[in-house]
Write a structure and sequence with these properties.
Oligomer: single chain
Number of strands: 30
Radius of gyration: 20 Å
Distance between the termini: 34 Å
Largest sheet: 4 strands, antiparallel
Number of helices: 1
Structural class: mainly beta
Helix content: under 10%
Strand order of the largest sheet: 3-2-1-30
C-alpha cells in the first residue's frame, strides 16, 4: 500500500471519530493503565488515557452497549450489548492493544461445553471479571451467565428467576455473586456449594427498584441503591439481611461504589444529576455534587486517588479528586457515557 493510501486511511479514521463526537488522537497506542468508557450513543467502547484525559481509540461494538468489564491482565475487555429495548443478544470482546473487536459472541441458541442446552440469553447488562472469566446478567432471561475468553464460549448459565436482574457484583473474599433485581425489589445472593456442584440462592427483600449495587472491600456489606424510593439498603453479608436503610431522598439512583479503602460510598442520581458522597461508617452525607443533566456510571481508580463519573446527559466524564471531593477534570464528547472499567 502506498504512503498516500495509508494517509487516506488515517484521515478516514479521523473523520469517523469526529462524526461520533469523540476527540481521538490519531494512531496512538493503548496506554497502560487505560480508562475504558462505554458510549451508548456511538455504539462504541472508548479507550482513554487517564493521565491526559484524551481518548486514544474508539472501537465499534454492538447496539446500545451499557457495561464493560476487563481481564485482570488488562488485555481483553467485554462489552454487554444491551439492545435498544433491553433485547440485545450479543457480547463484544475487545483486544485492547489491537483496539478492535475480536469476537461478537452470539447469545442465541447456546450450547454448553457438555452439550447442555442453555437456550438464548436476552438483554446482557452488568458484567464483572472474576477468576479468569467474565460474569454477566441476562436481564430479559432472568439469568446470569459466564463467558470464558480462553474458549470463546458461554460455559455456565444460572437461573435467577426474578424480574430485571440488572447488575451484579462479586465478593472476592467469599466468591458470592450479588444481583440487583430491579422490578422484583430484591437482591439475590448466589453462593457456590462446597461440593462444587449446585449453587445456593438467598433472595433478600430491599427497597423499591434496586439498581446500583456494590460490595464493601472487606466483604461485610452490600449496598443496594433503590431507584424507586430514594433509599439505600445496607445488607449484612453474614446474615444476608438488611441491617440498615438510608433515606437519602434520591430521585433515581443509578450506581453505587465504595472507594478502595472502604471509607466512602459514591451514589449517582440520574434523576437530578447529583453525586452523593456518604461516609460508610457513620452513614452520613459528606457532600452533594451537582454534575450536570444526569449522573450514571461510576469508576474508582484502583489507588483511590480519583473517581470517574459519567455525566451522560452532557456527554462527558467528570474526574473527581477523592481527597478534596472536587472535580479536577473532564473528558468531553463521549455520547451518552455510562459503564466504565480500568485496564491496568
Amino acid at each position: 500500500m502506498t504512503h498516500h493510501s495509508w494517509r487516506m486511511l488515517g484521515l478516514a479514521a479521523l473523520v469517523i471519530a469526529c462524526v461520533s463526537g469523540v476527540r481521538v488522537r490519531a494512531q496512538e497506542k493503548t496506554p497502560h493503565p487505560a480508562l475504558l468508557i462505554v458510549s451508548k450513543g456511538a455504539n462504541a467502547l472508548e479507550i482513554a488515557n487517564p493521565a491526559t484525559l484524551e481518548v486514544v481509540a474508539s472501537v465499534p461494538v454492538g447496539t446500545m452497549p451499557h457495561e464493560v468489564a476487563v481481564s485482570d491482565d488488562g488485555k481483553i475487555a467485554l462489552v454487554t450489548n444491551y439492545g435498544p429495548h433491553q433485547d440485545g443478544t450479543s457480547l463484544s470482546v475487545i483486544d485492547l492493544n489491537a483496539q478492535k473487536e475480536i469476537h461478537r459472541v452470539s447469545l442465541s441458541n447456546l450450547t454448553g461445553p457438555q452439550g447442555e442446552n442453555f437456550g438464548s440469553l436476552v438483554g446482557p447488562h452488568g458484567a464483572q471479571f472474576f477468576d479468569g472469566k467474565f460474569y454477566f446478567t441476562a436481564e430479559g432471561s432472568k439469568k446470569i451467565a459466564r463467558y470464558d475468553p480462553a474458549t470463546n464460549r458461554v460455559d455456565w448459565v444460572l437461573e435467577i428467576g426474578l424480574n430485571r436482574t440488572h447488575m451484579l457484583v462479586i465478593s472476592k473474599r467469599t466468591h458470592t455473586i450479588y444481583t440487583a433485581n430491579v422490578n422484583s425489589d430484591s437482591v439475590t445472593a448466589v453462593e457456590p456449594n462446597r461440593d462444587g456442584g449446585l449453587w445456593t440462592h438467598t433472595v433478600i427483600a430491599v427497597g423499591k427498584g434496586p439498581e446500583g449495587i456494590d460490595v464493601s472491600p472487606d466483604g461485610k456489606e452490600v449496598w443496594a441503591a433503590n431507584s424507586g424510593d430514594g433509599t439505600v439498603s445496607i445488607i449484612d453479608t453474614q446474615t444476608k439481611k438488611v441491617a440498615d436503610t438510608l433515606r437519602l431522598g434520591l430521585q433515581h439512583s443509578n450506581r453505587v461504589k465504595f472507594t478502595p479503602d472502604g471509607k466512602l460510598v459514591l451514589i449517582s442520581d440520574i434523576g437530578n444529576g447529583n453525586l452523593l458522597v456518604i461516609d460508610a461508617g457513620t452513614r452520613q452525607l459528606v457532600k452533594k455534587l451537582p454534575l450536570g443533566k444526569t449522573a450514571e456510571g461510576i469508576l474508582m481508580q484502583p489507588d483511590g486517588a480519583r473517581a470517574f463519573v459519567a455525566a451522560s446527559g452532557d456527554n462527558k466524564i467528570i474526574v473527581l479528586d477523592l481527597k478534596t471531593l472536587s472535580p479536577v477534570g473532564q473528558i468531553d464528547g463521549i455520547r451518552d457515557a455510562d459503564g466504565m472499567a480500568w485496564a491496568k
